[in-house]
Amino acid sequence: MRTNLNAIFCLPVLCLPMAAQDASPAETEALVKEAIAFAKANGKDAAIKEVTKPGGRFHKYGGELYVFIYDMDGKVVGHGQGAAKVGVNQLNAKDPDGVEYIKERIKLAKTKGKGWHNYKYVNPKDGRKEPKTSYIEVWDNLIFGAGIYKK
C-alpha cells in the first residue's frame, strides 16, 4: 500500500516536466491571433483586462508565454506580467545589449503590421537575461504580441 501511495504522490512531479515544455513559434503566433480575435469579439477593454488578468486565458506554460499590448507610442496598455506594467511608457526601454526593442517593435508594427523581432529579456523562470523573440501584430492601432525565449 505504501508503494502505491508513493507512486500517486510522485506522479505529479514526474508529469511536471511535460507541463513545462517550451512554447513553439506557432503557438506564440496563435496566442496573439487568439487575443486579437477575442478583442474583435468582446471589445478592446475586455481584451486588455483578460490579457492583464493573472492566470487568464492568455497565459500559457506557467506564465512564461503571455500576451502584451502596447500603443503606437510605446505605452503598455495590457501586459501578461501584471497590472503594474500597465500605463508605463516603455518607448526608450533597452535590453541588456542596449537595443531599444520597443522602438524596434513599433517600427515593425508601422512598416509591416506584423512579424517577429529579437531582443534580450529577463526570463521569469530563472531571472536570467536571455535571447527572446516576439511575434507582434497590429489591430485597431494597438500592438498585440507574445514572446518566447530562444533555445
Structure description:
- By secondary structure, the protein is of the alpha+beta class.
- The protein has one domain: Beta-Lactamase (2-Layer Sandwich), CATH 3.30.450.20.
- Strands 1, 2, 3, 4, 5 and 6 form a six-stranded antiparallel beta sheet that branches.
- The termini are far apart.
- The N terminus is likely disordered.
Question: In terms of topology, how is this protein built?
Answer:
Blueprint: H1 2-19, H2 25-42, H3 44-52, E1 59-60, E2 65-71, E3 76-79, H4 101-111, E4 114-122, E5 129-139, E6 142-149
Antiparallel strand pairs: 1-2, 2-3, 2-6, 4-5, 5-6
Number of helices, counting only DSSP H or I runs of 4 residues or more: 4
Helix share bin: 25-40%
Largest sheet: 6 strands, antiparallel
Return the domain count.
1
CATH class: Alpha Beta
Q: Which runs of at least 5 residues are low in confidence (pLDDT < 50)? A: 1-20
What is the strand tally? 6
Any idea of the CATH topology? Beta-Lactamase
* CATH homologous superfamily designation: PAS domain
Mean pLDDT: 87
Determine the N-to-C terminus distance.
42 Å
Structural class: alpha+beta
Strand content: 25-35%
Which overall shape is indicated by the principal axes computed on the Cα atoms?
globular
Order of helices and strands: HHHEEEHEEE
What's the Cα radius of gyration? 17 Å
Provide the CATH architecture. 2-Layer Sandwich
